[in-house]
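Re: the 211-residue chain
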Amino acid sequence: MSNLNFDWLRENLQDNMIVFDIGCADMGDTLRLKAALPQSTFYAFECANVWLESNLKVAADNNITYFHLALSDVDGVQTFYPSSVYQGEQWPWSGSVCKPGEYLQSDTWEWGEGYTVSSITLETFCNEHNVAPDFIHIDVQGAEYKVFSKLGTIRPKCIWAEISEFTNYETGIDYEKFHALMVGYGYRQLHKDSWDSLYVYKDLTCSDYVC
């Protein structure tokens, strides 16, 4: 569940935007975003098969465009590694196109067999669908760098990204490398906590972020 301040979002962004929720899981955050920005257009992305049936219904019931695929750095297919059990309870929330690292191979975790999923880059998706997001909410368990490495010329006004999992999966990067990528694109970091970071594009005028 995202720690995003939805009041800040309503105050600083227009309610007629294009919103991408990448790694939407059960679409819980997608629905919260839609409640905050009810006049905006929503695209939700998820590739874990466990969520497919319920997400199709939620999307249809709430006028959300849903794509069952991975946004990443590859146009084609990738292996998705589904999480299964955490501390003895069913836990489908932590699957990733990045292989679980040593920390996630402890006795508290169980993982299902990896399977092939369709994958597309942000640049390719936006070109094919003639769309560009104004706001991106992303939680893809360490694969955030992969997604934004293929941003192309797209520059969302605002990005809320999970930053806590880079070293828990086999990503080959850390937070500092991700942050440098975003700064190189022209973003400034308005907020950072232990889990997430808020980036705003250089031409966006906004209020200070309050947790």
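The domain at 6-201 is CATH 3.40.50.150 (Rossmann fold).
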